[in-house]
Amino acid sequence: MYRVLVCDPIAREAIDLLRKNNFKVDFVESPAPEELCRIIAAYDVIIVRSATKVTKEVIDRGEKLKIIARAGAGLDNIDVEHANKRKIKVINAPEALAVAVAEHTIALMLMLLRKEYHACRSLKEEKLWLKKKFLGEEAFGKTIGIIGLGRIGSEVAKRCKALGMRVLGYRRHKLEEKARELGIVAAPSLDFLLSESDIISIHVPLNKETFHMIGERELNLMRPNVYLINTSRGAVIDGKSLLRALENNRIAGVALDVFENEPPREPWEWKLITHPRVIVTPHIGAMTKESQRKTGLIIAQKIITTLSTDQ
Ligand code: NAD
Fold first, then answer.
1. What predicted TM-score, i.e. pTM, was given to this entire model?
2. Number of helices and strands (H, E) in the chain?
3. Protein residue whose Cα sits closest to atom 37 of ligand 1
4. 285 in a domain, yes or no?
């Protein structure tokens, strides 16, 4: 019987599915690396979300470890390279999250355009009826530039088309083909997208190439009244340059779901978060009941399939 260690909460149905398939499942909530090192040797599979770190040391102590499963998308908290070296499979379920993140991106875009956060806050907290102050803008007819046309970027593109927007998309590979499939305009370069868009939304993975891909130069290429949305990974934007651009009135508004440090801890991060033209959410893009359920079930199914084909 395979033993599974679940370190961060996952859908009940996923645990039931594993148990029904004869897996012994234990739950230890967010163990510190030392504790994880102490207990991991007994397990064939470890399931984590973003809180638990699967470090090189944890992997080395996992003598029986066959699968590291991330119930989500990003693998930033797992030493994937070391797992590969030890021939331990790393699996995730990014396909389960695209709709949730795309819907959140659209919500942030509309909140920015209609100043809904400030309108709601001033009425509820300050009891102020500031109807004239909140003259917003419509998404209809505006150009959105989507950087990264993968699972999430594509779902965002479809929704923006339905809102009557002109959609520009950019990615490194097979751009023309993808743009045709989505019925959007392929941006010939990132610089073109940056300078042509009223709204820019980022959907690339974080890697060496995309770290701080939006910095001072890129911010300077954007229209002065641009709206910028990031629901990908915080470090894709150079946050200090973004803060400077906001302070110099180079940007109309920013919406962030992701941050370089989560939770944020640097003074410049708090300055960015509390800036009056910035709206923020605490990395909730994928947090819907539907996506969490789907994620758990996909992960459980992948574990069952992998271990049954390995036998
Ligand atoms: P994906 O791999 O399906 O798509 C990524 C896209 O980015 C691809 O089209 C790829 O070609 C493109 N790309 C890669 N490098 C690029 C570059 N240098 N320039 C231009 N394009 C580039 O990924 P996805 O599932 O759509 O996820 C996108 C992002 O969203 C990731 O950063 C992921 O971590 C993040 N994410 C956030 C949340 C959240 O809760 N906010 C949830 C899930 C995923």
1. 0.92
2. 13, 12
3. 232
4. no
